[in-house]
Amino acid sequence: MFRSALAAALRHLYRGKLYAAIAVFGLAVGLCAALLAALYIRSQYSYDHFVAGYRDVYLATMSFTGPDQPSSYGKVTPVLLAALLKQRFPEIASVTRMNPHRVTLRYGEVELGSSIEDHGLVSSVDPNFFDTLPLPVLAGDPVAALSKPDQLVMTREIARKLFGDEPALGRTLEVVHDNALGSQVVTVTVGAVIDDIPDNRSQLESRVFVSGRSAWTQLAMSDRSAERGFYARFGMTPQVLTLVRLHPGALLQSVRDDLPEVVSQINSAATVQTGSKSDLDLVRIDRVQTSPHYNPGITGRIVMTTIMALVILVIAAANFVNLLTARSSARVLEVGVRKLAGARRATLALQFLGEAFVYVTVAVVAAVAMTELLLPHVNAFLVANAEFKYWKEPALLGWMLLGTIVFGLLAGFWPALVLSALRPLGAMHGARLARGSGGFLRQSLVSLQFALLTSLILAAGVMYLQRHFATEQALRFDTDQVLIVEASCSPGRMAELRKLAGVRDAACSYSGLLGGGEAMSEVTTRDGGKIRIKPVQIDDRMLGLYGIAPLAGRGLTASDFNAATRPPSKRFLINEAAMRALGFSSPAAALGPYQLASAELGAGRAHVFEEIIGVVPDFSMAPVNTRIGPTVFYADPVQFSTISVKLKGTDIPATLADINLVWKSTSGRMGEGPFGKLNYYFYDERVQRMYQSMLREARAFGIASLVAISLALLGLLGLAASAADRRTKEIGIRKALGATTGDVLRLLLWQFSKPVVWANLIAWPVAGWAMQRWLNGFAYHIDLPLWLFPATLLATMLVALATVSAHALRVARAKPVTALRYE
Fold first, then answer.
1. Cα–Cα distance between 158 and 162 in angstroms, integer?
2. Tens digit of pLDDT for each residue in 83-105?
3. 530's torsion region: left (phi>0), alpha (psi -120 to 50) or beta?
4. d(CA 488, CA 69)
5. How far is CA 785 from CA 451, 459, 761, 782, 796, in A?
């Protein structure tokens, strides 16, 4: 009996090679998408799992809530916090601090750390850093190394870049760092080498760790300032990363309950109060990556990845079930013959289930191969470090086995339940079943496929239009050929830059103009009220360089401030949001004398503005998900740290070389040393980096849509071929009774058009609601494009009809006599 069942299964597989190949390939693609998504999501939830005892290690974080302002969250904390935590909580085994540095490592001709990409490569840490975060050691003793001020610890990767294949332990190298006196060079020794920290799998961005006891480090200078009571006098404290390890079994909640008192101790050290409410929390290091407070957008990316994978998997599974049920009706006669020969229902059911398991097993094997092939590309695209080592993970193998069993049962359920229950005589006259078996199920599955497909296409279209709006229309100023240079300003340097042949103009500002430094300051209006406002320091050329014209009044001029003595200007400009916050009805009404006072506007200094000289349109260089708040623009040369250079666009390489020469020739007298490299980038590159996540999401939805379209059309192609075979005799009778080829073709095409139309009508409200919610997450966004909905219907209809038309035309053109002899 088993041999008979196996022979029947193999004959069926051979006769339906096309359908089997389509079903297996489609399911393999769906399973591959699900595997890739699961591996990516798992990688996001397994950050820092390589740290021994990571469940007891926490990152101290702080949040701030200002008047009428949403809470802001940060991963940095005051430098004084570590001592307060260790002193107060017996549950804490150790506390350590970490402070990234912009320094250059130099060994012979090799330099590391001078580029923007290497920012944070080197950090100064407390000597107990590796007690708190024990990492695999390859050579030396990292704890002993950090106890000495002239030693450092580096990863194997950095050691290889600096020293090649030579042993790193005990070698000396130079650390070039900047301070108020210019660039300084310190000689240090490699005291230990640790194993590489996995990229995109750790909160630790640094790869070189310098002892915080080294006098030149920010950590050491901060501690010396604390000993002299600097923070108590001025109310300012540097910010560092603070990492805490609890004793095994210690209760986190008992620590959290007393954290508000620690915050009170920190705030009492400051004489200048900001008016914001501060909160302190401890977040386990493997949960920082998936927290929306400290990794904005991560929840959306995970949800997006899950939805795309599920959509592709459901479409693939629907195709698989559709094709199996479509071919099942052709086996009615076989069931009748085998039942007359003595086959039992259980035997037939097991055979159908066994065939489904064979298909699913082949699909799973193909999916595993696809996953291994595609995973490196997915990691590069999503900036992840997911791993697929199923041979080392029994749990993963178990889930794959369970998935195979579930899919096999679902795929084989219909033929095993229905066909095996047929009576022999009814099966021998199985025309009724052949005509209608599983028809409603197949139509429903096709509608489900195209509903999901339509939703993906709509989402991809909305994302593309929003990204185009964010990168083109929402900027509201001219960014063409603008170079951003990270360097301090001086009249001499700016004059030299403006003389260059390839430069149209150059202007200075604080980095907050570019969207950084979003801190708001509390100011007192002339009627005694208080509002929160963002200070932005610019010079007299900045607005003109970006093509921003005042709505009323004028911009700053050189006479409004003195660059030589560097006092903040008394005259200032406001944006439209500030105009409304101050109660003015129009830009013109805001002009004139107006006192605006702040206790800490720029470098912690008190300042009083005296006159509004202009009102500018609301514009922002921050992402479009950040609402433009009340902003004042004024000149404060002490705060200038960024130069915007407008290029002419001719011979850009030569112009960049000239800018570098100007920087070097003016560095000696400005506290910038000759050892570092000038950091610059084009503004358009900044926009691309700023919206990289949105671009990645749009591309991911586009790729998912293409895969889903391919799977849906592949399944539709298989169903069309099956329907053509199944309805050959019916079409012959219709043509014999006078139906034309056009009549038959319209009949068949309408059969496949109905589920597409229903799918769009189902998908429109769901996709529209979801994308409107997504758009509402941006402070500035497009209106939901209603024209996209009928356009999607038209596109899916045309593609579906083009896919099935070949088979429909073949059947419609068949001669009636040939069709009547089909069976």
1. 6
2. 889 888 999 999 999 988 878 88
3. beta
4. 32
5. 19, 11, 16, 8, 18
Amino acid occupying residue 177: H
Q: Which residues make beta-bridge pairs with 632? A: 535, 574
Strand, coil or helix: 532 = strand
Question: Can you give the pLDDT at residue 193?
Answer: 93
Cα separation, 569 vs 557, whole angstroms? 10
Token duo for residue 328: 């099942």
Q: Which two tokens stand for residue 245?
A: 């390890």
> What whole-number distance in Å separates Cα of residue 571 and Cα of residue 574?
10
**DSSP-assigned beta bridge partners for residue 192:** 140, 153
User: Is 50 in contact with 202 (CB distance < 8 Å)?
Assistant: yes
Separation between Cα atoms, residue 28 and residue 316, nearest integer Å: 8
356, β-bridge pairs: none
3-state secondary structure of 528: coil
Report residue 154: phi and psi, to 5°: -135, 160
Sort 383 into a burial class: Cβ within 10 Å, 0-12 / 13-18 / 19+. Answer: exposed
- Residue 1 contacts by C-beta under 8 Å, 6 or more apart in sequence? 343, 347
Tell me which amino acid residue 147 is. Answer: S
Q: What share of the chain is helix, strand, coil (3-state, %, to 5)?
A: 50, 20, 30
Q: Which amino acid is at 283?
A: V
Cα separations in angstroms, 3 against 6, 9, 384, 777: 5, 10, 49, 61
- Which residues are 659's β-sheet partners? none
The dihedral through the CA atoms of 211, 214, 217, 218 has a sign that is: positive
Give pLDDT, residue 15. Answer: 66
Q: Which residues of 613-638 are buried (b: 16+ CB within 10 A; e: fewer)?
A: bbbbebbbbbbbeeebbbbbbbbbbe
Burial class (CB in 10 A: 0-12, 13-18, 19+), 444: middle
**CB crowding 78-107: b at 16 or more within 10 Å, else e:** bbbbbebbeeebeebbbbbbbbbbbbbbbb
Q: Tens of pLDDT along 363-381?
A: 899 999 999 999 998 888 8
What's the token pair of residue 21? 């190949």
What is the CA angle 551-520-531, rounded to 5? 70
CA distance 135 to 144: 14
> How many CB atoms are located within 10 Å of the residue 275 CB?
13
Comparison of pLDDT for 799 and 786, the residue scoring more? 786
**Cα–Cα distance for residue pair 443/441, rounded to 1 Å:** 6
The answer to whether the CB of 295 falls within 8 A of the CB of 74 is no
> Cα–Cα distance between 252 and 88 in angstroms, integer?
14
**Residue 535's closest CA among 567, 501, 572?**
572
Q: Which residues pair with 508 in a beta bridge?
A: 643
Identify the CA nearest to 631 among candidates 534, 509, 521.
534
Contact by Cβ (8 Å): 92, 246:
yes
CB 280 within 8 A of CB 76: no
Look at the alpha carbons of 153, 155, 156, 161 in this order and tell me if their dihedral is positive or negative: negative
Residue 691 per-residue DSSP state: T
What's this model's pTM, rounded to 2 decimal places? 0.75
Q: At what angle do helices 741-776 and 692-726 cross, to 10 degrees?
A: 160
- At residue 380, φ and ψ (nearest 5 deg) are -65, -40
